[in-house]
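Board notes (copied after class):
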Amino acid sequence: MAKKPTKEHRSWVEAPVVEAEIMASGLDLEAERAAHPRGVPVKRPFKFGRWFRATGWRHIVGIVMTLFALFPIVFVISSSLNPQGTLTGSNALFSSIGLESYVRILTDPQVPYPQWFGNTLIIAAATAIGTVFLGGLAAYSFSRMRFTGRRFGLISIVVIQMFPQMLAVVAIFLLMSAIADWFPAIGLNTQIGLIMVYLGGALGVNTFLMYGFFNTIPASIDEAAKIDGAGHARIFFTIIVRLAAPILAVVALLSFIFTVNEFAVASVLLIDTEKQTLAVGLTKLVSNPRYADWSAFSAGAVMAALPVVALFLFLQKYIVGGLTAGAVK
C-alpha cells in the first residue's frame, strides 16, 4: 500500500503547476515522478527558531568574533589619522581625519622610518629564507635518515622551546661583543649579526612542523629516485622541496612575522638608530613619558603591517594545507 503524501509533499495530481514548471525547465517529467514517488517536496516556511538552532547561532558567534578582532585594527587606523598625536583624542573613532601623522613620520629627520622599514624587510626576508633552508635540511634528515641520537635530537628541539628567549639575551650580548672584537662585520651593532642570531634559533618548532609534513610524503618516492641514481641532496632539492611547498611557505611566513615583531634581541644588538628595525625604532616614539607621539606610532604600525598582510595574502593558499598536513604525524 502506497504511503500517503505528508503535508511536506504535494502530490502530482494536486500540483499541475509544478509539472508545467518541470517541463518548462527541460527536465524529464517521468524521471522526476520516479525520483519523487510521494510527490514534490514542499519548501518549509522560514522559522527563526529553527534556523537559529541549526546554523544561526554560528553566524552570530562569527560576527561577534569578527567585530572583536577588527576593533583594535579600526582603533589603530583611527589613531593614525588623528593629527593631535594623543590617544585621548582617539577615543571617538574618526572624530578628526588627517594625514599629518604619516607625513611627519616619513619626513622627520630624527625619525628615519624609511630606513627602519628597509632594515626590517631585509632582516626579515633573510631570516625567513635561512630558516626555511636550515629547517628544511634538518627536518629532511630527521624524517628520512636513521642515525644515533635522532630521537634525542627531536625531543631536544621541543624542550628547548620551553625556555623564554629573554633568558638568552645577556648571553647573546656577551657573545656578540666578543665576536665584534675579532670580526666586526658580524658582531655587535650589525644587521648580519642579528640575522645570524635569529638563524641560530631556526631549528625550533618550525623544524618539528616540517618534520611532521615530510613524514606524510611517501618514502617510496625517495626509493624510486635512489634507484635512478639520485642522492639525498638531489632528492631534497628536486623532489621534496616541490612536494613540501605548503609547509615551506607556512614556515617562511611565521619566520617573517616573528622577525618583524621581535624586539628584545634587536633592541640589545642594534645600537645605532640608522641600523634599528621598526619594532625598536617605533618604540622610541612612545618611550618618553612626557610626550608620546601615539599618532605617529599608529601610522608607522599601519604601514609596517602592509608587508605582512601582503605576504599572508600571497601565501594563504598554502597556509591551511601546510598547517593541517604538518599536524598529522
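Comment from the instructor: Residues 1-8 have pLDDT under 50 and may be disordered. The chain has 15 helices and two strands.
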